[in-house]
Design goal:
With 506 residues, the protein is an alpha/beta fold. The chain is 38% helix and 19% strand. The chain has a domain at 65-408: Alpha-Beta Barrel (TIM Barrel). Strands 1, 2, 3, 4, 5, 15, 16, 17 and 18 form a 9-stranded mixed beta sheet that branches. A 5-stranded parallel beta sheet has the order 10-11-12-13-14. The chain has a 4-stranded parallel beta sheet with strand order 6-7-8-9.
Amino acid sequence: MTEDHGRVWWVRGGQLLTHRDGRWGVERADIQVSGSSIARVDTSPAQVEGQAGDLNAAGLLIIPGLINAHVHSNDDFLRGRVDKLPLEVYMLMAVPVTGVAELRPEDLEVRTLLGAAEGLKTGTTCFLDDCYHIDRLRPEAIDAVLGAYNRIGMRAWVTANLSDKPMPDTIPFVKDYLDEERYAEIARRPFRAEEALAYCEEAIEKHNRSETGLVKFAMAASGPQRCTDAFLTKIWEVAERHRVPCVSHVLETRIQAITGDIFYGTTLITHMDALGCLTPHTVIAHGVWVTDADITLIADRGATVVHNPTSNLRLGSGVAPIRKMLTAGVNVALGADGMTSNDAQNLFLEMRLAGCLHNIKGQPYDQWVGAQEAFSMATHGGASAIGMGGRLGEVAEGRLADFTLLDMDSFAYTPMNEPVQNIVFSEYGQSVRHVVVSGEIVVRDRKLVNCDEGELYARGREAASRFFTDNAKAFERIPEFLPAFEAAYRRASTMEFRRDRWLPGE
């Protein structure tokens, strides 16, 4: 993709979704784009004839680019593989626990492009991609993933998700049900913690040098229970030194809540805080099983929680206490999670569910989470999560020019009574006409500008087929380990616990 950051052009004749006095509403506006930023928003525009290079937005609704704050691009070959499994069993079934063959850089690129293309075509302009390097962490693999986002023209923060504990040691009781040979086989996979941290720092120094760069590198720990305390602390030291987001899965499931008690005698949030790993750069994925005290800590430390409503339901993880978080002042963003726990990268679907799901808890209806809150999670919340609050999340003067134009000549907006409610409850991406990222049109008239979709699908099918062929024996061996994980899950599930995230009430 080529960028001309000196180009000045206008989006004329559209209806703009703006944020005034704490609420989203619509007003007529023309928008001037200069380079990668919005130079002017004219809400009383005169009738001016468009110039060459301007975009005619008549009949279009202009909204901020959506920010998907929790994605796993490493899952993009695995769409449709898993159903009716809880996380602790699903993790075993999704990817061979004995390891996978090394992926080619070109396959990593096309794998990443598959999710990015779906995101762009459904109005998402930025991903926080928590990428697991399921084969082997290496600089050329990091470059391939970041390069894919650059190629398609999508804004992204990309991690290399890290953990240094043997996988069977991260879930209570699994080791009790594995024989010594099988335990040793899946516990001995080599991991060099200092080498991994060095690769991450090199990636930050390489990709984050430009303030206006489209794609940047962030840090991530798979989960506090999946890392030794020393390694977890070092991950956060890197994130704080470079002032980048640091992602971690925390209290996603009831088993993880029990894990905190068993491993540390406290909640995982309290444990992270004691280690200095709860900061404004901390991005907590899920947070379903947090306590009230956890919520207070998260708010006090300025950390973010990313709500993943579809994934939480698909994996039976529960319903996060989002109203309590919002009331406490926690920044809440919105995510779709990976293809194996969602099967889509469409943030409109997440907004719709976020705007409905929390009404089942039996609270007074003035405490429900609705369209306004859901849309803010997908915009303001995501911008703050990646440290770009004030630069993304709204279409306003001085902000980066990331926005989506929706065709109002559709069922979703006929009639348009309350714009945000139409967007959250009627839109599923079918109305996306154009998408602009960093001042460049990357979707025009519903077609990707920088990528041929037909070619992408063909490459994606070929690369996915190669992945499953190369790892056929490893996938065939998964059932050998399944009984141990199922037994551990059943045992942990019978343990009494002090809170509930499945039934109405908080």
